[in-house]
Amino acid sequence: MRQKRPTGSEWESLVDEWYKLDHSGKVDLAEKYNSTYGTLKHWLSDEGATRKEPSPKMSIDIDELLGMKPRVKLDICCFDIESSNLTADFAILLTACIKPYGQAPIVFRADAYDAWKTNRANDAPITKDISDELRKHAIVVAHYGARFDVPFMRAKMLKHGLDPLPPMFGIDTWRIAKQNFQVSSRRLKNLANFFEIGDKSGVEGGLWMSAAYEGSREAMNKIVEHNVQDVLVLERLASITFPYLRSIPRL
After folding, report:
1. Using an 8 Å Cβ cutoff, are 213 and 85 in contact?
2. If 39 and its partner were Cys, which of 5, 35, 139, 140 is the partner (CB 3.0–4.6 Å)?
3. Global pTM value
4. Range(s) of the domain holding residue 170
């Protein structure tokens, strides 16, 4: 008597077993159901039965996973640079400030490097140190950073043979202001004054000239003070404008 096609869990068991067996095993399986190899193939074809792919398994156990150290600090840092000009091919890096959220600013200044005394045009050492610190963080906040600070750094890094920054995300407070606030100017100084989040005073242009061309320590000190104040105000601006952030794009 010809066996009817099994149903329910018995059918699922047959399908599962079928795809685990070689040809000889499938013939024996057909005999188990009082049927033939060809009949079982028709049953599977008629029902559209397919091989069940095994569930993916972790290649490491939980203890190993928890013991892994992240490659970046999963935090937000504020970033601002000061340069002798606005284009990388006509400028040198003077200072930079990276401030992990809620922590003290990390300051880089070109006159702290030996090259400053004999070849101020060589900003490779400070570029490397800035990029080494920047690449440790996951999200970078800058004001007009997507159009100045980050492209300037990328140009300098490529010029000096440094590896590109890893996959990171960027928040540009200038862009948030542009999309959400109808104000007379979206410059950091104007936003700081309007929202009353700190004094963002300007610096005389002559200070940049004195620093870049004369190597003035006094001028560099004032530029560093300006740089640090920028990231302090930037952090406050990021904090109050964060609710207006629509998305965080790749840097």
Report:
1. no
2. 35
3. 0.71
4. 73-244
Q: Which residues pair with 170 in a beta bridge?
A: 140
Q: How far apart are CA 234 and CA 247, in angstroms?
A: 18
User: Do 116 and 78 share a structural domain?
Assistant: yes
- Residue that has been written with the tokens 């559209």 in this structure: 48
The verdict on residue 3 lying in a domain is no
- CATH code for the domain of 130: 3.30.420.10
Q: What is the pLDDT along the chain (251 residues), one digit of tens a residue?
A: 556 778 888 888 888 888 888 888 888 888 888 888 888 787 777 776 776 655 555 455 556 555 655 566 678 999 999 999 999 999 999 999 999 999 999 999 999 999 898 999 999 999 999 999 999 999 999 999 999 999 999 999 999 999 999 989 999 999 999 999 999 999 999 999 999 999 877 777 888 899 999 999 999 999 999 999 999 999 999 999 999 998 899 88
How many angstroms separate the CA atoms of 191 and 198, rounded? 10
